[in-house]
Each structure stands twice: as structure tokens, then as C-alpha cells.
Design goal:
It is a single chain. This protein is 47% helix and 17% strand. It contains 7 helices and 6 strands. The strands form 2 sheets. It has a 3-stranded antiparallel sheet with strand order 1-3-2. A 3-stranded antiparallel sheet has the order 4-5-6. Strand 2 and strand 3 form a beta hairpin.
């Protein structure tokens, strides 16, 4: 898979990403990620949101169609979710034994947008499955139990 396709796939998985996050997930220098983003910009596969003074990239209708995903509504960038997503990506990149992972957004797209999903489902190389839930604010134990129960129903 070429770098450009990997970037489109990452944008589809996460919804929206900054250039730094794309570089971390690709395990490439940021200059390399920015170069690939420029080639994708010429093809108009993504748009840039500059509300936080960081370039936040998300797929356009053309990008969704190219990936074979039916176009619904365009994603609205949630500025409060960016630090949370940044923590998840940094944690994910620091792990060495991950075979595959699914994001909360992917799970919602597959399963008709139920509310209680973990942030990540991580499939390890030893065959175990790990549910990852990062919270920046305090939540009740009942909320965690509900998310865990729904997650186990999916698996």
C-alpha cells in the first residue's frame, strides 16, 4: 500500500488527524507525511480545518468515494476531542506488540452508531484482545461497566 493510500485509510479510521499524528501513525518523519498530504491535496481527497491553528485533515466526499465508503455527512472537527485522540495515538505508537486495532469511529460505522464503545480495540500478537478507554475527566464506574458490556457483545 502506498503512503498516500495509508494516509487516506488513517483519515477514514480516525475521522480527522493532524500532520504530526499522521507521521506518528505511519512511523515516518513529519516532512514525509506533509509531502504525501500535498499530493493528496492536489487530488482533493481531503479538506483542512484551521480552527485550532493546527491543520486538521479530514476526508472529502471524493476521498470517501475513492475508499469505497458511501458518503454521509462531513465530519465536524471536535476541538475538545483532539487532546484525547492525541493521547490515544501516542499510546498506540508506543506499543510494540500490536497486530491490528479498531477505533471507536470504525466500530460506530460498522454497528450503526451505538453509544457505548471503547476508544480502541487492540489485537495483540499473542492473540489477546485489549479494550482501551482513556478518560480525561472522571467517570462513574457504571459508565465503564456499560462500555465494557457493549464491547464484549461486539466481540
Amino acid at each position: 500500500m502506498t503512503e498516500s493510500l495509508k494516509i487516506l485509510d488513517l483519515l477514514n479510521k480516525w475521522g480527522y488527524l493532524t500532520a504530526e499524528q499522521i507521521a506518528l501513525l505511519l512511523k515516518k518523519p513529519i516532512e514525509s507525511a506533509k509531502t504525501n498530504l500535498k499530493t493528496l491535496q492536489k487530488k482533493q481527497f481531503y479538506k483542512i480545518d484551521k480552527t485550532t491553528r493546527k491543520n486538521i485533515y479530514f476526508l472529502t466526499h471524493k476521498g470517501n468515494s475513492y475508499l469505497g465508503r458511501e458518503h454521509k455527512k462531513s465530519i465536524k472537527v471536535n476541538c475538545y476531542e483532539l487532546p484525547h485522540q492525541d493521547m490515544l495515538i501516542k499510546w498506540l505508537v508506543a506499543q510494540n506488540d500490536i497486530e491490528n486495532y479498531q477505533t471507536e469511529r470504525e466500530l460506530k460505522m460498522e454497528n450503526d452508531n451505538l453509544n457505548a464503545y471503547p476508544d480502541l480495540i487492540v489485537y495483540k500478537t499473542d492473540g489477546t484482545i485489549q479494550l482501551v478507554e482513556f478518560e480525561r475527566t472522571r467517570k462513574t464506574p457504571e459508565r465503564f461497566r456499560k462500555k465494557t458490556w457493549w464491547s464484549l457483545q461486539i466481540l
